[in-house]
Amino acid sequence: MCPKRWFLLILSVFFIGLLFFSDAQAFIYREFTIHEIIDGSTNIVFGKIKSVDTKRLNAIIEVEEDLKGEKLDQIKLNIATGWYVRGSSPQKMIKLLKVGMPLIVFYQQTHTVEGLGYFDGTWYRNRTGNPEGWWIFTHLCPYMERTFNGTTMEFREVIRSILAGERWVGAPEDALKVLTLTGNTKAMPSDGPIPVPTNTVSYEYNAIRAIHRVGNQTMAYEATPDRSLPDLDQVNILWFGHREIAYSGYLLNKATEQKIKAFVENGGIVIVSGQDVDREKPFEIGWLAGSLKGVERRPTQDFAVTEQGQKLFAEPNEIQSGQLYIDDTWTDWDGDFQVLATSNDGKDLVVGVRKHGKGLYIITSLRNDNRYTVGKNKKLIENILHHAANQIR
Q1: What sign results for the dihedral spanned by CA atoms 285, 288, 292, 295?
Q2: Domain layout of the chain by residue ranges
Q3: Before 316, cis peptide (omega within 30)?
Q4: Which of 174, 210, 305, 341 could form a disulfide with 350 if both were Cys (CB 3.0 to 4.6 A apart)?
Q5: Nearest to 135, CA basis, from 66, 76, 72
Q6: Shortest CA distance to 241 belongs to which of 195, 279, 208, 280?
Q7: For residue 330, what is the enclosing H or E element?
Q8: Dihedral (C-alpha) 110, 113, 116, 117: value to the nearest 10 degrees?
Q9: pLDDT tens across 192-240, in order?
Q10: Distance CA 371, CA 374 (A)
Q11: Residue 282: its pLDDT value, please?
Q12: Residue among 236, 351, 238, 229 nearest 292 (CA)
């Protein structure tokens, strides 16, 4: 199977329901993982084109299997209703369909049905009020080709593997595996005016997984909200998302703390994004092999790079004071820390590295809790991943 990226670009200006709904003809695009699409779908249909009517602009999909919900006999697709927007038209869609062609249809059935279809590198949107009636084709989704553009049969195998609980589906054997703990705080929705239950992806995670390669090394990404960190021994880099260690209280237990320390001692790299400190509830550091104190600070964009940190703040992106968004930070670090950047006249740690056994910790004070702050910090996120990947080589 050819390795593919696991991002899915879903359109919506008004993000209603879970993943699919949009009435607008002008779109913004947001990345979703395939896991989110699967979680947000009530039905996942494997089928094939039974007939194509090029004059009436419609097609019939024979349903072979439904991996999640009650199986339909067929899906009747009315293509004539399609929008004439950039990269899409009914005429373009009908020319792509051939009798016998396998397809995949993800859909969510509530008071209406919102669907996403896929065949051999082509994504399209459809919807209906009655799944046994005609489904309205709305438009092709050319931007999704960046996410998965392999064959339909390859994609089917990916979906089956994910539903079977496998991780790192399709990742090359030599890929560096990055696991991000994210999705446990309502302060981190990726899109929409309210948090969505199946949405475990943050703006921070999207910035992380945008780094596809470091030199000749392929990067592979997974996200989890599970603080027990299952299968951590399969991972090269563990990234603690913003507020995932502490948010209105400490969030890790003793077993997870010991697992993290062992992970680093055996060669793993832990990257800690900034947390949310209350004066009454300071950080706990049972996950760290060393001493450090979390402190509450006002947000700032000012920092100073040390001589040891010059490379981190120059490769591959040059980053200067005023170009980051920093919040609650760290102080009272032990002498085994390599200090790369500070704030507050050198009293607070902005980025620091501490070795432990064969691995290391990379501690930051970045505030990555929304689109604006992540936009400010994404260049350093990339630099940090480059630094971490180069330590593993």
Answers
A1: negative
A2: 7-163, 176-392
A3: yes
A4: 341
A5: 76
A6: 208
A7: strand 329-331
A8: 130
A9: 433 444 445 678 988 998 898 998 899 999 988 899 998 899 999 999 9
A10: 5
A11: 67
A12: 351
- Residue type at 383? N
The per-residue pLDDT for 31 is 55
Summarize pLDDT for 236-275 with one digit per residue, the tens. 999 999 989 988 788 899 999 999 999 999 999 999 988 7
SS (H, E, C) 268-329: CEEEECCCCCECCECCCCCCCCCCCEEECCCCECCCEECHHHCCCCCCCCCCCCCCCCECCE
Percentage, residues of the chain above pLDDT 90: 64
Residue 260 parent element (H or E): helix 254-265
| Residue (of 14, 13, 8, 15) closest to 28 by Cα position | 13
Choosing among 3.30.1360.70, 3.40.50.880, 3.40.50.150, 3.40.50.10860, the CATH entry for 176-392 is 3.40.50.880
pLDDT higher at 63 or 276: 63
- Give me Rg for the CA atoms of the chain: 23
pLDDT digits (tens, 9 = 90+) for 126-165: 999 999 999 999 999 887 776 677 899 999 999 999 899 8
Which is nearest to 43 in space by CA: 131, 138, 153?
131
Rounded to whole angstroms, how far apart are CA atoms 248 and 340?
Answer: 28
| SS3 state of residue 180 | strand
Please answer whether residues 175 and 220 qualify as being in contact, where contact means their C-beta atoms are separated by less than 8 angstroms. yes
- Taking the CA atoms of residue 331, residue 336, residue 342 and residue 345 in that order, the dihedral angle to the nearest 10 degrees is 70
Residue 124 · residue 137 · CB < 8 Å: yes
